[in-house]
Amino acid sequence: MAASIAENLELVRHRIAAAAARAGRRADEVELVAVSKTFPAEAVREAAGCGQAIFGESRVQEAAAKIPELPGRLAWHFIGHLQKNKIRKILPLCSTFHSVDSLDLARQIDRIADELGLFPTVYLEVNVAGDAAKFGFSPEGLRCDLEAILSLGRLQTAGLMTIPPFTEDPEDAREHFAALREFRDELAERTGTPLTGLSMGMSHDFEVAIEEGATSVRVGSAIFGRRRAAKPAG
Ligand SMILES: *Cc1c(COP(=O)(O)O)cnc(C)c1O
């Protein structure tokens, strides 16, 4: 029996607060991005009615159809891999981009943001696990490109983001979350830029991510239910 979005949100908020408390952190240090991809505007409205204000989308076409249907007071984060030819379409709709994964992409976002008069917040995606199937900077790549990214006048670089390889046991993700935090500490030291944001943790592993320092968790199915398109039936 599926619980309602309201019940799910309540439970996720409790779990965030409990994980933060275990790590000696305050619950309000962790931002919840409710990932509404594949779910209709109606589901977003229901969550917004429970006080949820930040939503995440990962496909440009879907986001461009959904966002204008919803109240302007909501904040939208783009969490998916962004193709360069779609920047112009999505930039006016989203305040924050979680998956900037190359210097070239960062430069193009900066250039179009300048044309449009915007100052988007970005996270730099790092492939800390060295997973060949994933997007993201390698740590060596980001060490090399970070100064150039930080010099882009329109981008507000919040910090780093990662997606660890999926495994059944969320504890397996801990080393990757810790590695992202340690890498952030190294980069902050080298550049003198705090890079305070750590976007890490999804439905399956957000509590472990918070224990390891996440400041933004991207949670979809634990709030909205299982995505029909996400897995083959059965
Ligand atoms: C879909 C998605 C999420 C949310 O996934 P859930 O497992 O449903 O919480 C988070 N981050 C990214 C980048 C995603 O694409």
Task: Give the tags.
binds pyridoxal-5'-phosphate; disordered C terminus; eight-stranded parallel β-sheet; alpha/beta; 234 residues
Over all CA atoms, what is the radius of gyration? 17 Å
Taken from the alpha-carbon principal axes, the silhouette is globular
Strand content: 15-25%
Molecules bound to protein: pyridoxal-5'-phosphate
Number of helices: 9
State the strand order across the main sheet. Answer: 7-6-5-4-3-2-1-8
Question: Secondary-structure element order, as H and E?
Answer: HEHEHEHEHEHEHEHEH
**SS-based structural class?**
alpha/beta
Quick check: average pLDDT? 95
Number of strands: 8
Main beta-sheet annotation: 8 strands, parallel
Describe the SSE topology:
Elements: H1 5-22, E1 31-35, H2 41-49, E2 54-57, H3 60-66, E3 75-78, H4 87-90, E4 96-100, H5 103-116, E5 121-125, H6 139-150, E6 156-161, H7 174-191, E7 197-199, H8 206-211, E8 216-219, H9 221-224
Quick rundown:
The protein contains 9 helices and 8 strands. It is an alpha/beta fold and 234 residues long.
